Amino acid sequence: RHGPRLLGIAGLVVMAVGMSLVGLAPSVAILAVVLALAPLGSAAFHPAGTAHMSRALARRRGTAVALFMMGGNLGSSVGPVLAAWLCTQWGLGASIWFLPLGLAVAVLMALFIPADSKPAAQRGQAAAPKGPIPWPIFLLMVACVAQSWLDSSLVSYLPLLYSGRGLALSTASRALFVYAAMGAGGVLLGGTLSDHVPRWWVVVAAEALSVPLFAGTVLLRGPLALAAPALLGLVSSLTYPVTVAIGQEMMPDRTSLASALTMGVSWVIGSVGVTGTGVLADHTGMPTALLLVSAVPLAGMACMLALQVVMRRRAAAPVLPATARHGAGSGSRRW
Other C-beta atoms within 10 Å of 208: how many? Predict the structure, then answer.
């Protein structure tokens, strides 16, 4: 309704303020308020950011979303290391040093991202309700939830699995490192690949391959114990930019909302699935629980195949109801 530029800049400022004040909080109550502030900014920034990137590279939407996510991966890798060094040298209050960096990036966004040039009347018309959310996007969200559940379960429980086998935590750390490192490459590969082949192919193939690779990560030992999570990180990350790109093409007039549904809502629900993994582990043991979770992507794969059928039928229909046209954007030809 307000455009991705304004929401992205405001979200970044709120996120920067919240994170930089963490080390200065004088009490637990204020710390809780500060920690609640940063995620609100993040929730505003990320859907708006992906929407703007996809508009900037409209003909290479998958690559655009992948580049945006690559920036996030880089920040997630460098940020904790830099924060640990600063706080070790100058104490927790050094977190405030991140504020100028965040504000500087917000200023650069304000200077170089063009403002909406549409007249006020057109902006008001664009902000009007555009009908209900197209129901097929919920099939896409199931695929996102399945992959997020799988990935979150691995990160949360692989150290416990290795510890139960008498292995050092450093072994789990190495496995998770190669998993994350290969995942960064998988994001870029998946987005780029989906600009040249049908996007649903990428998602279905990635979710199908994730099943044996996840099982291998749980079962294999020795040198192969690092090979399996490395390949899993590469393969599972293929889906993340592609599902966002598909969602934006299904809702071309509400790309920020589509990004929020496929990124924020779906990933949060998938992360909650980690609780289910823990419950399974309490009743069956950690190895068995993780092997059962390895089948979760099959549900996402089935939903993607069903979504492909729905989108093909919509694209072939000569006349669509007004409420259905919102789910058949120009990008649906890639299906």
Answer: 15
